[in-house]
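Example record

One chain of 437 residues, shown exactly as stored in the release files.
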Amino acid sequence: MFRDDGISRRAFLEAGLLAGSSILVPPRGIAGVPDPNADDHRLLDDLERRSFQYFLEQADPRTGQVRDRARADGSEHVKGQRDVASIAATGFGLAALGVAASRNWITRSDAVGRARRTIAFLAREMPHERGWFYHFVNAKTGAREWQCELSSIDTALLLAGVLTARQCFADDPAIVQDATAVYERIDFPWMLNGDRYLLSMGWKPESGFLEARWRHYCELMILYLLGIGSPTHPLPVESWWAWTRPVMRFQQFDYISAADPLFVHQFSHAFVDFGGRRERRPPGIDWWQNSMVATRAHKAFCLSLAGEFPGYRENVWGITASDSAKGYVAWGGPPRNPAIDGTIVPCAAGGSLMLTPEITIPVMRTLKEDFGTRIYGRYGFVDAFNPNTRWVNPDCIGIDVGITLLSAENLRSGRVWEWFTANREIATARDAVLRSD
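Predicted structure tokens for this chain:
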């Protein structure tokens, strides 16, 4: 349930994102958001249970590596991708094990066994380079797939799940030992590739470091916090202040963002509780409020397209990186991506349940009630569908299922936040760059 921590759970922004800034926000004085009611809890509990089923069935029983995608009804594997796992999905899956155990969807001993096997594989068998893992791996062997990169952000999301499990299952010495080894092995300065502060997005054995760096605000906050908190190979605290904070404006909404999909405002929040905190340096950005505004702006953006795509309406909206009828697209908005075709991506609203429940719970309810089993089944919602053309994606994608599950659980209990930030390394890093209001 919500914590009473002042402005961070309000229905609208009641204070500036930036202390003393000129960024426009709605006025103060709007009543706080109520806790989810019994019907909301039933809705979210069913969604979470189904989402967890994905991680239960799509994780390899020996390695624990979670498939990148699967058919939404669980009936068959996706052609050409049968055993391709995503390390970020595995990170979400490790956190999901804690949720499932706490809610008695599986026994604690089963959850501990699965987490222990997964983290032991990462510590002892999974191919890596200076602790960094490949983005996509074979679920059965851990071998690199598709000549992909060692991914800094996907390693961070995997590590977030590892450290969440370390705290959730802190009474298991094997999990604690192996999780600590995985974290302490990562050489964060190596991924700087000569830069003083900014990390590369990845590395390939054939060509070396990727030219692209994590240099402007996006999902990068979890990565830099993990680096700053590293007890063995830390990043300098200045790395946090080195990336840029561009301002996006849409209608009455101003917020920190580049032209990225909505998930960039969700993934770090799935693990780190930014509520009631601001950056230590002026102008004192409140990242919790920032993601609330981004979600509200995104809803307004989708509704602004309703004339072109009548399927968008008050409680039917949401676009973030996903499948489409023409393939995978890293779309979102604002601004308008030319590829937008009226597709709805349920995890856009689902990933913001923890941020703006008063506008996202109605989306979850309406999608389930109005479209039914066409889009809602074994693993919860399909990854995407188009209400204008009646196209329905046959697949679910692990990270999209995962962000929905963790966001819903944080809204309902805050457990994932509590487990992750109980890690002393994370608490130290967060306190180095953020202060309590």
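Notes: Residues 250 and 297 are 7 Å apart (CA to CA).
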